């Protein structure tokens, strides 16, 4: 490539880049240009159709009215000629009288004798041959009735009105070109109006497109801020239209994401603390036992503490795995028939040490001997463990956690009620959210904020709805129901209830 070609290519590249930059600056490559192009195209088509339709309609209406006027003027001209014939006017007098009523540049009156000789009043700008051709084209015949025809010729469109007057033994013919001039004037005025309308429409379309693109750009910038984690940013758009509703939805989404992000951070902090505390304890006790710091007689006690901390870690890891499975859509529920009452009795027996550790008692209120329901026993045991641990975590020492199993006509219902701190209606509406922990829980009570979320997901998978009743300072009660294994519940006579148990 020669040096000249290289310079030309470089100049062409710079010009193309400059044009692209200008196009981006004025918005020709974005939605602004598309909106503007659509608006202008719509306006252009609209005005084109309007111009064509209006020209046809207005032209036809003007032609009809002009033909009627020409016929009336022809009749008045004939009346004048008949009067002149009776009174014996000369040709000069007739010519002078007709020139007063005939516009000289728009119409010509021809008075034609049988011999072919004619008198012309007015100055239609046509040669004699064209006038004779127009007369012939109009089909002037020996008729006493007036005729008005529109004749097309190379010179334009003419309105030819004619009538044979027996009293004069002459033809009277009117050649008019006024229609063309009037129609052109109307067309010019119409074109001027259309031009002004297009100019105004272009300005309005430009402004409207700018207005819409500014709103969309604000939403785009706001979405970019949300993507960067700046959820406190708000999109300012108070309009009630669809874009305003979209802006409101994006702002609400940002609020929800901000709350979720805060809960996630709190969750990570809580998990880090919950992992570090038992690991530190386990490490310290094991190291003390191995170093011989712990006396031989107390080793069993510290090993039990280590075991408790290990169980706590296993519970935390299990909840985290369950939450990850829920988010991945891999959380399975395998329903089967089992004895719910027996499952609750065995579970409470296994958790006696946990109740003693929290200095909390449990009481079984009227537990039937057998209650067979349909559900996943492993998952439902997980539900009971979470509810019982939650009740113990928020109960003061010396209080009681009540477990009730009620038999209904279609289902069996379990209630776990504590005598703890309770919660407000706002807190009760949010306890099912992932990572949510109440202010009281932040003070050291409770777990990571995912246990109740897992509970709700398990019960939703069973088609059961969990209910909560709570008041600040008066404890909380959680209740859920499961369908009977049989079509109907067993008869009341066959029930054998145990007496309330305490531990």
From TrEMBL:
This is histidine kinase. It is a multi-pass membrane protein. It is an enzyme of class 2 (transferase). It is found in: Cell membrane. Residues 210-262 form the HAMP domain. InterPro entries: BphY/WalK/GraS-like, HAMP_dom, HATPase_C_sf, HATPase_dom, His_kinase_dom, HisK_dim/P_dom, HisK_dim/P_sf, Sig_transdc_His_kin-like_C. SUPFAM superfamilies: ATPase domain of HSP90 chaperone/DNA topoisomerase II/histidine kinase (SSF55874), HAMP domain-like (SSF158472), Homodimeric domain of signal transducing histidine kinase (SSF47384). CDD domains: HAMP, HisKA. Its EC number is 2.7.13.3. Keywords: ATP-binding, Cell membrane, Kinase, Membrane, Nucleotide-binding, Phosphoprotein, Transferase, Transmembrane, Transmembrane helix, Two-component regulatory system. Residues 270-486 form the Histidine kinase domain.
């Amino acid at each position: 490539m020669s040096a000249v070609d290289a310079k030309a290519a470089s100049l062409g590249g710079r010009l193309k880049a400059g044009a692209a930059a200008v196009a981006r600056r004025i918005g020709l490559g974005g939605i602004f240009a598309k909106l503007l192009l659509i608006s202008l195209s719509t306006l252009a088509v609209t005005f084109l159709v309007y111009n064509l339709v209006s020209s046809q309609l207005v032209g036809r209406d003007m032609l009809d009215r002009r033909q009627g006027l020409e016929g009336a003027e022809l009749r008045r001209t004939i009346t004048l000629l008949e009067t002149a014939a009776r009174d014996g006017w000369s040709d000069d007098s007739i010519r002078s009288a007709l020139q007063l009523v005939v516009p000289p540049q728009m119409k010509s009156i021809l008075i034609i004798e049988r011999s072919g000789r004619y008198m012309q009043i007015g100055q239609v700008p046509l040669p004699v041959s064209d006038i004779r051709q127009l007369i012939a084209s109009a089909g002037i015949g020996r008729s006493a009735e007036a005729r008005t025809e529109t004749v097309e010729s190379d010179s334009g469109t003419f309105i030819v009105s004619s009538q044979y007057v027996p009293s004069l033994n002459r033809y009277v013919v009117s050649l008019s070109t006024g229609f063309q001039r009037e129609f052109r004037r109307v067309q010019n005025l119409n074109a001027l109006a259309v031009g002004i309308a297009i100019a105004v429409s272009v300005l309005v379309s430009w402004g409207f497109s700018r207005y819409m693109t500014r709103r969309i750009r604000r939403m785009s910038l706001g979405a970019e801020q949300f993507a960067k984690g700046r959820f406190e940013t708000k999109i300012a758009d108070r309009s009630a239209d669809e874009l305003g509703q979209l802006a409101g939805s994006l702002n609400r989404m940002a609020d929800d994401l901000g709350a979720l992000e805060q809960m996630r951070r709190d969750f990570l902090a809580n998990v880090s603390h919950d992992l570090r505390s038992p690991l530190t304890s386990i490490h310290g006790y094991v190291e003390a036992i191995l170093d011989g710091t712990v006396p031989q007689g107390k080793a069993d006690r510290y090993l039990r503490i280590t075991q408790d901390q290990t169980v706590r870690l296993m519970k935390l890891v299990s909840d985290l795995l369950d939450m990850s499975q829920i988010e991945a859509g891999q959380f399975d529920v395998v329903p089967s028939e089992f004895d719910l009452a027996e499952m609750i009795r065995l579970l409470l027996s296994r958790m006696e040490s946990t109740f003693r550790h929290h200095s909390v008692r449990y009481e079984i209120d009227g537990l039937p001997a057998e209650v067979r329901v349909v559900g996943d026993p492993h998952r439902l045991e997980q539900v009971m463990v979470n509810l019982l641990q939650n009740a113990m975590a928020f109960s003061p020492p010396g209080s009681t956690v009540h477990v009730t199993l009620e038999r209904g006509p279609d289902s069996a219902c379990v209630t776990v009620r504590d005598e703890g701190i309770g919660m407000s209606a706002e807190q009760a509406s949010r306890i099912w959210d992932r990572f949510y922990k109440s202010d009281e829980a932040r003070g050291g009570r409770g777990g990571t904020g995912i246990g109740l979320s897992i509970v709700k997901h398990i019960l939703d998978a069973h088609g059961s709805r969990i209910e909560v009743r709570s008041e600040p300072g008066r404890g909380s009660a959680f209740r859920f129901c499961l369908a009977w294994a049989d079509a109907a519940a067993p008869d009341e006579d066959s029930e054998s209830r145990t007496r309330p148990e305490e531990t």
